[in-house]
Amino acid sequence: MPSFAQNLAHPASNNISIRELSLIVDWLRGDYFDIEDKQPVLPHDQTTAHQAVQLARTISNPWTSIVGAPPPTPETDLQKATRLFAANCSTCHANRRIGVSPVHTSAPDLTNFGSRSWLAGLLDPAQIKSPAFFGNTRHITGEMVGFVVDNLKERDDADKTKLQNLIIALSAEAALPSQAEADKAAESDGTLAKGRKALGEAFESSSCVDCHKFRDQGDLGAAPDLTGWGSKDWLVRFISDPAHEAFYRETNDRMPSFGTAPENSTKQPLLTPTDLDLLSRLLRHEL
Fold this sequence. Notes:
The protein is mainly α. The chain has helices at 18-29, 46-57, 77-88, 116-122, 143-151, 157-172, 180-188, 191-198, 232-240, 273-283. The radius of gyration is 22 Å and the shape is globular. The chain starts with 17 loop residues before the first helix and ends with a helix.
C-alpha cells in the first residue's frame, strides 16, 4: 500500500493532500456526510485535517527522516492518554475536553464523565435518548431509558429535590478531584446521606436499585454496580471488561473488553494495566 501523505513538511510531494486524506478517512468511517442532508457538509478544514493526521500518527512510534537527529521528546502522561483514547475509544465516543469530537458517535459522549452535570444530562428525559447518551446505542430501547422517560418526566418539587440529591451522591462516588470541595460540603450538610437513600426510593413505580446494586442496597443484575461509580478503580474494571457480572453482562453494547484476553486464548489484552490507568485518569480530569 502506498504512503499517500508521508511528507507533512513538503505536502506538494505527496500523492494527495492532507485534507483529501482526512476526507477519505471520514468517508470510510461513514462520517463524510449525513445521507439525509440536502447539502453534504465537508467537516475538515486544512488545520483540522493536519491535526487529525498528526494525532493518528502518534498511534505508532514517531519517526524522523533526519539522520543523527536528537531523540524525540518523551510523551507526557496526558499525551499518551490522549493517544490511547483516540486509538481505542474515539470510534464510538467523543471527549471534547481533549479535542475528540467525531461527526457521528455510537456511544455516550464522555466529556466531563462522572460529574454532576454529566449525570444530570443522563437523567434528563429530554437528553437521555440523544446521541450524547444512549441515542445511538442498543440501550435506547432498554429499561434505563424507559425509567428516565416514564418516571422522571413530570416531577413535583419533592422529586426534583430527591433527584438532585441523588445526582450529587452518585457523582460523589467518583471522588473527582475537581469536585472535592463540593463533595465535602455535601457530606457535611447531609446531602450525600439523603442522595444515597434516594437511590433506593421510588420515583413513581421504580427505583435505581431495582436494577442496580448500590452499596448495601439492591443486587447485581443486568445493570452496572453503582458502588464507587466513576472512581478510578471502577473505571479500570469497567474498561477492562464491560461484560463482567458487575457491569453489563449480556447487555453490553459492542464495547470490547480492553483489559482481558478471550478465555483459552494466547492473545494479550488490548490495553496494559498502565494504559487502563492512564485512560481512567484522563476521563477523571486527573491529567
